[in-house]
Write a structure and sequence with these properties.
The protein is of the alpha+beta class and about 375 residues long. It has 2 domains: about 150 residues, 60s Ribosomal Protein L30, Chain: A; about 190 residues, Phosphoribosyl-aminoimidazole Synthetase, Chain A, domain 2 (Alpha-Beta Complex). The chain contains 11 helices and 15 strands. The strands form 4 sheets. Strands 10-12-7-13-11-15-14 form a 7-stranded mixed β-sheet, with helices on both faces. Strands 3-6-4-5 form a 4-stranded mixed β-sheet, covered by helices on one side. Strands 1-2 form a two-stranded antiparallel ribbon. Strand 1 and strand 2 form a beta hairpin. Helix 3 packs parallel to helix 4. The protein is globular and about 75 Å long. The chain starts with 13 loop residues before the first helix and ends in a 5-residue tail after the last strand.
Length: about 375
């Protein structure tokens, strides 16, 4: 007698999913403070927001994102406990840009086959990054998609919600003529532009285990360097009245100029000196390997600047001192002034649907 088909025969192993949950529970629990209600494993994550009663006008901020093709590097190296920092950084650091504190996060992992240890590694990384950000990981989902994804393939995405008092909202409305633009260093490539990076290394014929003198480690180790999570540092800076923070810009897809232009008001322009920092080696190596034009490079990768603060002129020194105390490398990129209306290859005006201010890149990069 022919046996009927089962869910397991179709390629979905629910027992493996349960095992993955058991392996990740302790890491997730470490992100839970007294505001998390009901613990782990409910249909919905619960978070006590009684503190919003003290807000005059609380604004909820939400963001969602993924890691992109950087997951291909993690899969090729079979290292999965760092990719969570890339996910959390892409999500919570978009929220903190407006001055909001990221309260809760959820994740979603789709894979061809649930390997409990691998899924647990991914979630442990997400939880560790949430601890750094001060964000509770309150829920998630792991979906097994046999036939859609290969056995060792997976993709990750996440979403977060935060809150900011309306009067403390940061953004273009607070930016003024004379403000100073301050850069915060990236940890490397972060999570953007990996389609270009992977095309470059494929074209060059380099393997991930190649030792690269400029990196003092292998190519794979450099490419898998986790995204720096800025949320708690940015909040500390924003709460420091002496720093006079008016806006933040998270430098992700599109590069520095396009993302900075999003937080400038129409009528103002930021002048950014390309020579104000030394571009980290990974960017110059990618440029040389692929003969990538500087213009394409700066429109795709962060080039060493992961987050930007726009502060009042009188607050610049305090802001730099605060960031130094936090252990975050930072420097002055340039200043904000009236927009003269000029156009050109080095000028970006508005971006991603935002009719904002302009950014003028000047000088040459140092490598």
């Amino acid at each position: 007698m022919t046996e009927g088909l089962t869910y397991a025969a179709a390629g979905v192993d629910t027992a493996a999913g349960d095992r993955a949950v058991e392996l990740m529970k302790s890491a997730v629990a470490r992100t839970h403070g007294p505001n998390v209600v009901g613990g782990f494993g409910g249909f919905a994550g619960l978070f006590d927001v009684s503190m919003l009663k003290s807000y005059e006008r609380p604004l909820l901020a939400s963001s969602t994102d993924g890691v992109g093709t950087k997951v291909a590097i993690a899969q090729a190296l079979d290292i999965h406990d760092t990719i969570g920092f890339d996910l959390v950084g892409m999500v919570v650091d978009d929220i903190v840009v407006c001055g909001a504190e990221p309260l809760v996060m959820t994740d979603y992992i789709a894979t061809g086959k649930v390997v409990p240890e691998r899924i647990a590694d991914i979630v442990r990384g997400i939880a560790a990054a949430c601890e750094v950000a001060g964000t509770a990981l309150v829920g998630g989902e792991t979906a097994e998609h046999p036939g859609l994804l290969k056995v060792d393939e997976y993709d990750v995405a996440g979403a977060a919600v935060g809150v900011v008092e309306a009067s403390a909202l940061l953004g273009p409305e607070k930016v003024r003529d004379g403000d100073v633009v301050i850069a915060m260093a990236s940890s490397g490539l972060h999570s953007n532009g990996y389609s270009l990076v992977r095309a470059v290394i494929s074209h060059a014929g380099w393997t991930l285990d190649r030792e690269v003198e400029e990196f003092s480690r292998t190519l794979g180790e450099e490419l898998l360097e986790p995204t720096r999570v800025y949320a708690s540092d940015c909040l500390a800076l924003a709460r420091d009245e002496a720093s006079q923070v008016h806006a933040f810009s998270h430098v992700t897809g599109g590069g520095l100029a396009a993302n900075l232009a999003r937080v400038l008001p129409t009528g103002l322009s930021a002048s950014v000196d390309r020579g104000s920092w030394a571009v980290p080696a990974v960017f110059d190596v990618m440029r040389g390997l692929g003969q990538v034009p500087w213009g394409d490079l700066e429109n795709t990768l962060n080039l060493g600047v992961g987050m930007v603060a726009v502060v009042g002129a009188e607050g610049a020194d305090a802001a730099l001192a605060k960031l130094a105390a936090l252990g975050l490398p930072a420097w002055v990129l340039g200043t904000v002034s009236a927009d003269d209306g000029a156009n050109g290859a080095d000028i970006t005006r508005g971006s991603k649907g935002v009719d904002g201010g302009a950014v003028r890149l000047t000088g040459a990069y140092r490598v």
